[in-house]
Here is the input.
Amino acid sequence: MKITGEINSFIRDFVKDLSDNNAAIFAGAGLSKSSGYVNWKELLTDIAEELELKIDLESDLISLAQYHVNKTKGSAKLTRKIVEEFSHQAEPSENHKILARLPIRTYWTTNYDSLIENSLKQAYKVADVKHKLTQLNITRPKRDAVVYKMHGCVSDPASAILYKHQYETYYRDHAPFVTALSGDLVSKTFLFIGFSFSDPNLDYVLSRLHTSTIKTHYCFVKREDIDPEEDPEIQQYKRRKQEFRVEDLRRYGIQPILVDKYSDITDILKEIERRYLKRTIFISGSAEVYGGFGKESALKFIHTLTSELVLKDRRIVNGFGWGVGSAVINGALDAIYQHPEKYSEDQLVMRPFPQFASSSQDLKALWEEYRQRMIGLAGVSIFIFGNKLEGENLIIAGGVIREAEIAIEQGRIVIPIAATGFAAEEIYKLVKARPELYEPHKWLLTVIDELADPGLEWPEIVKKIAEAIVKLDR
Here is the structure.
């Protein structure tokens, strides 16, 4: 899809909110639709037929559910419908997976399914799920994200919010949820995803957005489809009504993000992830010897490079490679402690490799999984040195080569500093043979060539990399 100026502005601002740990998601039924779950109209089709009503003619679906409760003197069938429709296992969608990988710590949803918490689990994150009042004052240990299922969960269908009377008394019966939501709306930037203007939950959710905050939130809105066989007056009417509804969102502090098709939302989320990841740098390398640099100069080079990247507001990921890891730590912490009001220790992620096999995996398999996950945290990978002793012989570090291969497989930006020699030089030859890897950033190939000059002094290397990292953000 073509990224317009408005969408580009949204992506830039939302990436900043992600970097500041200030982003939240509010998910509607549309987020789960592509995974095979029903929307509200599909959920209530049988209910409408039982009432001798036509679901396509109904717009107030919450009232429709209430009519059925009134007629049957209970909600047993509605509860059974939830169990039938949402109990089957479904795979999280691509949108679920992208959101789970991003540093989003707060999710609100009106959905009954478990796709959000399942996608977080797949991303190796601990979800603290809250779908009833008694769970609100209990904090799950080591949680990575909180998932507020404000209308209930398929695991407890009898307590789900389904019909109009429950919505009308929600403020009173579920006041702690309303209070928690109001607090998040004041302090976080929400992205509403999966809501349509026919979603009965949207109006009820919007009614809770009347707060004193001037915070801007965002909502994906799909433009009305144009059916060439439909009456032109009806088409014009639908578009005009959507324009009014879109404009009304701004009344609640919600900026609509208009897309032509649902797949555009996935493309936007991918771009958000790509730009966010570019702000995290993986530094790969190991060194028994430092070639023409000499040990003292090499360690100073690594220290200064890492420090400069932190000062550019980047996060550093490192596997604590032999002869390199300590200098990475020292450089990052030096920058952080000199400016504690601006930078934090969260900008340094150290992942020392496990030295013993687990009960279920041998060490080689464990290291491969470890590398995959570690490199997945960063959008840019820098490779330096890369040698080790095998017995009495100095050899190229195969682990550093493998990390470059993984970075390429994951579509990351690879920057080998071939001037440091060893594995970095081999990786330079590898990427030079594949210029298509730098298609979005062709200018970077020139920089990589310059970094291959063995006569280049290390302060100049640091300068060139720092400039390239900043340029990648543009």
